[in-house]
Amino acid sequence: MEIDRNSRIIRLTEPSKLVAANDDHLDGRDPRELDPDQRAVVREDLAKVPRENSPTPRYGGLHRLAIADFENAVATAEPDFSRYRLGFNNRDLLGSIAKDLNTRFGVNIHYGYGASLEAFANDPRQIGYGFRAARTDGFHIGEKVVDKLVEPFEAPIDRRAVATFAIAHEFFHSLLRHPDVDGAGIPMPKGWRIKKYEKYRALMEIQVDYLAARYLRVLGLPLDPVMAMFQRPGEFPEGKDYPSGEIRAANVASAKEAEFRLDLFSNEIVDCLDFLESLV
Ligand SMILES: [Zn+2]
Questions:
Q1: Ligand 1 centroid from CA 180, angstroms
Q2: Using the 8-state DSSP alphabet, how is residue 15 labeled?
Q3: Which residue has better confidence, 91 or 189?
Q4: Whether residue 46 has pLDDT greater than 60
Q5: How far apart are CA 77 and CA 85, in angstroms?
Q6: How many angstroms is it from 200 CA to the middle of ligand 1?
Q7: 142 pairs with which residues across the strands?
Q8: How far is the CA of 33 from the centre of ligand 1 (A)?
Q9: Quick one: CA dihedral 66, 69, 71, 72, positive or negative?
Q10: Cα 124 to averaged position of ligand 1 atoms, centre (Å)
Q11: Residues 96-110 pLDDT 10s
């Protein structure tokens, strides 16, 4: 099958019916600004739009990752990472990142905290080993891991960028249903196809790194601290499931280009463009 990249880009970058239905009520506002009654109206509207792969209403978040005016994005002061304290409880800051992701993508992916990954040790659908564990129905924010990632940075905005990247990485594993793709015995999500089983796992990391980097840009956050994190010697070695830190840094850098990289989602290893478009 030939992928018509041009028509795909148009489909990905044009607001879908879903966004249009949504925008009638949003009137340019952020969904978070809606009061509960307004949200109910939007949800009702969205329920009328058939979305095969979308069990929950979405707010066109992926569309925004594809078309955002990155150059003019300005970071807000919130969440204020000058309040981040190494070794202490930062759950209000970290939780607000997870909440924002859920709001922007119109989903309710659960998240929990903790220093270890034990809670997921017996779950065959766990993913994101040694970072935080993510599952389709939830992900795990390892606070000690976040501490370790942000520690080398002093500027609050750099710390915020790195923490946001790490949480968004796990969130996107869930949103793209990677744990189901990866899970033995679990049906492949509709719109997903694996062509090279020996190579898809590392590519999934590249996919979510890329989306997380685009998300930082939507928020007006810098990518350089994330690239510096991946380039730190010995911290992100190449493994069976993970590309090298150098490759991951270069992938994050590619999110600086305006054009959305469809090639990460349709190539000789996987094709999940139909699934991706179901999220737009
Ligand atoms: Zn991962």
A1: 14
A2: P
A3: 91
A4: no
A5: 17
A6: 12
A7: 114
A8: 31
A9: negative
A10: 15
A11: 999 999 888 877 787
Treating both helix axes as pointing N-terminal to C-terminal, what angle do 224-231 and 245-254 enclose, rounded to 10 degrees? 170
Q: What is the pTM of this model?
A: 0.81
The position carrying tokens 């204020």 is 80
Cα–Cα distance, 62 to 280 (Å, whole number): 5
Which stretches does DSSP call E strand in the chain?
110-114, 134-135, 138-142, 193-194, 270-271
Its sign, for the CA torsion 200, 279, 186, 128, is: positive
User: CA of 182: how far to CAs of 89, 185, 268, 269, in Å?
Assistant: 32, 9, 18, 14
> Going by DSSP bridges, is the β-strand pair 138-142/193-194 parallel, antiparallel, or unpaired?
unpaired
In contact, 155 and 75? CB cutoff 8 Å: no
Enumerate residues 6+ apart whose C-beta is below 8 A from 10. none
pLDDT confidence of residue 15: 54
- Residue 136 Cα to ligand 1 middle (Å): 12
Helices in 4-155 by DSSP H: which ranges? Answer: 5-13, 17-26, 36-47, 61-67, 91-105, 143-150
CB atoms within 10 A of CB 275: 20
* 18 CA to centre of ligand 1 in angstroms: 28
Q: How far is the CA of 256 from the centre of ligand 1 (A)?
A: 20
pLDDT digits 0-9 by tens, 137-180: 678 788 888 888 999 999 999 999 999 999 999 899 888 888 88
229 — phi, psi (to 5°)? -60, -45
